[in-house]
Amino acid sequence: MKSFPMLLLGVALTAPVSTWAQTSAPAGSVVVIANRAVPVEKIDPSQATQIFLKQVQTWPDGKPIQPIDIKEGAPLRMEFYSKITGRSPGQLRSYWARQAFTGMGFPPREVATAADVNKVVQTTPGAIGYLDRKNADAGVKVLLDSSNPTP
């Protein structure tokens, strides 16, 4: 019977932490951005999913797509994959583990911050990434806005 009060204490102590974790993600709109030279103006969530899962690897002009991801665990990355692809971090890890094991592919290049995404996308031909809407500037092309996901 002594373990029951300890269990209640454990639940009481973790509840506020889990509530905080759920609300710590960014509140802004996620946008998918690309290098200004890519040959498309808009994409839909399905196309973005195919690109970031590397199921589509070339732009319509035949040039390679270079998806850029933010490091695993970043709130913006979780928001992007949740809102745009409908996938959780666990589902992504499982997908990429299967791809790597079967020799079918490896995850997109990762950078540390949203500022790094912006810089790499601006300077890399064929690059595509994602940012919080407020961080997208004139040096990139916005292809998809999660607040208005239809092209």
What's the pLDDT, averaged over the residues?
Answer: 83
The CATH homologous superfamily is termed Periplasmic binding protein-like II
The CATH class is identified as: Alpha Beta
Per CATH, the architecture is 3-Layer(aba) Sandwich
Largest β-sheet summary:
5 strands, mixed
Helix amount: 40-55%
The share of residues in extended strands comes to 15-25%
SSE arrangement, N to C: HEHEHHEHEE
| Structural class by SSE content | alpha/beta
Order of strands side by side in the largest beta sheet? 3-2-4-1-5
- Could you tell me the number of beta strands? 5
Number of helices: 5
Low-confidence stretches: 1-26
Overall description:
By secondary structure, the protein is α/β, with parallel strands linked by helices. The chain has one domain: D-Maltodextrin-Binding Protein, domain 2. Helices cover 42% and strands 17% of the residues. The protein is built from five helices and five strands, in the order αβαβααβαββ. It has helices at residues 3-23, 45-52, 75-85, 89-101, 114-123; strands at 30-35, 66-70, 109-111, 127-132, 140-145. It has a five-stranded mixed beta sheet, with helices on both faces. The chain is globular. The termini are far apart. The model is unreliable at 1-26 (pLDDT under 50).
Short description, anyone?
By secondary structure, this protein is α/β, with parallel strands linked by helices.
